[in-house]
Write a structure and sequence with these properties.
The complex is a heterodimer of chains A (112) and B (115).
Chain A: E1 4-7, E2 10-14, E3 19-25, E4 32-38, E5 45-51, E6 56-59, E7 62-67, E8 72-77, E9 86-92, E10 101-102, E11 106-111
Parallel strand pairs in A: 2-11
Antiparallel strand pairs in A: 1-3, 3-8, 4-5, 4-9, 6-7, 7-8, 9-10, 9-11
Chain B: E1 5-7, E2 10-13, E3 19-24, E4 31-38, E5 42-50, E6 53-57, E7 64-68, E8 74-78, E9 87-94, E10 105-106, E11 110-114
Parallel strand pairs in B: 2-11
Antiparallel strand pairs in B: 1-3, 3-8, 4-5, 4-9, 5-6, 7-8, 9-10, 9-11
The chains are: A mainly beta (112), B mainly beta (115).
């Protein structure tokens, strides 16, 4: 089955810096890659996703890039703010499948 | 539109007991998936229901079961609770079953503590 590796497990940045979280996947058939943000006491919230027909997608300060050849995808957050502090999860799935395989998560801490 | 709701939010049970958790999906969503979240194992897929039928099951023992009703609301049940069942149980809903076609939205979870 699919295996998703996520790095780093923790990331500390200063407010205004950029943050990058990287994930690799094992199943070359995977073609859907969402990113979720989970704040304390809440469920994961979908923040951005990418499908394999595109290499990059942006939404304001957040961007996701995908390299299908290398089987890795990354989340980029620019101009980080304290409210970006949370645990971020990457995941993967493929056409015809209903399940998501998640990475282990990255705890992002943005210091003022 | 209201999001995914889960009840109860917190539960404390004793080893050997059983527990039932409830999930109400976003209105119009027909697919409901359940995940277990623990610090050690992360988010792990339990099972998925669509149109009242279990369509997919993760690698969990038979003590974990669920069902879906005609209004798409879903329940999951854990029998003979073990300490290792302590976790956050998350429910997620979507319109379709294919993740590539449709995003999945999570509820706030039920925090189960087994003592």
């Amino acid at each position: 089955g699919e295996n998703v590796e996520q790095h780093p497990s923790t990331l500390s940045v200063q407010e205004g810096d950029s943050a990058v979280i990287k994930c690799t996947y094992s199943d070359s058939a995977s073609n859907y890659f969402p990113w979720y943000k989970q704040e304390l006491g809440k469920g994961p919230q979908l923040i951005i996703d990418i499908r394999s027909n595109v290499g990059e997608k942006k939404d304001q300060r957040i961007a996701v890039t995908l390299n299908k050849t290398a089987k890795h995808f990354s989340l980029h957050i620019t101009e980080t703010q304290p409210e970006d502090s949370a645990v971020y999860f990457c995941a993967a799935s493929k056409t015809g499948y209903s399940t998501l395989t998640f990475g282990k998560g990255t705890m992002l801490l943005v210091s003022p | 539109k209201a999001g995914v709701t889960q009840t109860p939010r917190y539960l404390i049970k004793t080893r050997g007991q059983q527990v039932t958790l409830s999930c109400s999906p976003i209105s119009g969503h027909r697919s409901v998936s359940w995940y277990q979240q623990t610090p050690g194992q992360g988010l792990q897929f339990l099972f998925e229901y669509f149109s009242e039928t279990q369509r997919n099951k993760g690698n969990f023992p038979g003590r974990f079961s669920g069902r879906q009703f005609s209004n798409s609301r879903s329940e999951m049940n854990v029998s003979t609770l073990e300490l290792g069942d302590s976790a956050l149980y998350l429910c997620a809903s979507s319109l379709f079953r294919d993740r590539v076609r449709d995003e999945q939205y999570f509820g706030p979870g039920t925090r189960l503590t087994v003592t």
